[in-house]
Amino acid sequence: MNLANKTIWITGASSGIGKALAIACSKQGARIVLSSRNTEALEQVKSSLTSSQQHLIVPLDLAQPEQLNELVVNAMSQIGRVDVLVNNGGIGQRGFACETQLDVQRKVMEVNYFGAIAMTQALLPFMKQQGQGTIATVASVAGLIGGKSMAGYSASKHAIIGYMDCLRAEETINGIKVLNICPGFVQTQISVNAFRGDGSKFDEMASSIANGIAVEDCADQIVTALEKDKAQVIIGKGISYWAPTVYRFFPAIFRRLAAAKNYRE
Ligand SMILES: NC(=O)c1ccc[n+]([C@@H]2O[C@H](COP(=O)([O-])OP(=O)(O)OC[C@H]3O[C@@H](n4cnc5c(N)ncnc54)[C@H](OP(=O)(O)O)[C@@H]3O)[C@@H](O)[C@H]2O)c1
Question: Which family does it belong to (predicted)?
């Protein structure tokens, strides 16, 4: 798919991967619909995009999935057409499973899973009417494997990958493409903004994230995956890139390493 003149709706566009992706897609000539909760930050991102006048801001809260259908339907009367939805907005979770409160697990699932599927289900009828569209989701390597200190997060990412694989099987016949994006560690605010087990903000830059790939590199690889109409892409370096391969071909070794690794962030 050539991104020029396409309309790309990106959730979580105020920061990190979503912001870098908005910038990268606008350079390819795409019109961007920017969404997240922080309108002020979205305005700043919008003004930094190529051809900044043509892009739109639609504030929304993925933690309120039952409100998203009406919001999308209303916004579509202004937007007109969406070629690509990027379900990118998300929240991290740091802490052992047994220390993480149930309401925190639920909040992570609400944003990362229900928020994403609510956006998808709201936009699908428009895409099916168009006879084409792409649903791209920034899941995670944590949606393909499990490790320490991220059970709720990993569960939400496994769930969204499972949902999207089923959606692809159902909607290919209607011209809908589904791309699962699985980054490893990327230098963003994800750990800073993550929940601790008690629901407070983690507020620390995890060393794994600080040592991850540059956010611009991640965005460029997402653009390439969209251009090549990929179904799934793993993005990263080192162990965060290779872990799903090790898990697939040497599952016993992977499980031993995952259990031995001594970290809590
Ligand atoms: N960084 C990594 O290493 C990494 C690795 C794998 C996957 N990911 C995934 O990449 C995606 C983007 O994260 P990031 O790394 O760029 O982190 P980030 O810098 O913290 O950005 C998160 C984005 O999600 C938005 N968001 C959070 N809660 C929201 C809500 N309730 N409603 C609407 N928007 C919400 C935030 O916007 P507002 O605060 O303005 O609402 C922000 O734009 C997430 O899905 C994350 O799980 C990240």
Answer: Belongs to the short-chain dehydrogenases/reductases (SDR) family.
Pocket perturbation via mutation, ligand 1, pick of 21, 64, 91, 113 by most ligand atoms within 8 A of CB:
91
Domain, as residue range, for 162: 7-260
- What is the per-residue pLDDT for 134? 98
- Residues annotated catalytic, as ranges: 153
Count of domains forming the chain: 1
> What stretches in the chain show pLDDT beneath 70?
262-265
* C-alpha–C-alpha distance, residues 207 and 205, integer Å: 6
Angle made by CA atoms 239, 113, 174, in degrees to the nearest 5: 100
Return the pLDDT at 265: 44
What does DSSP assign to residue 113?
I
Q: What is the pLDDT of residue 77?
A: 97
Give the CATH number of the domain where residue 199 resides. Answer: 3.40.50.720
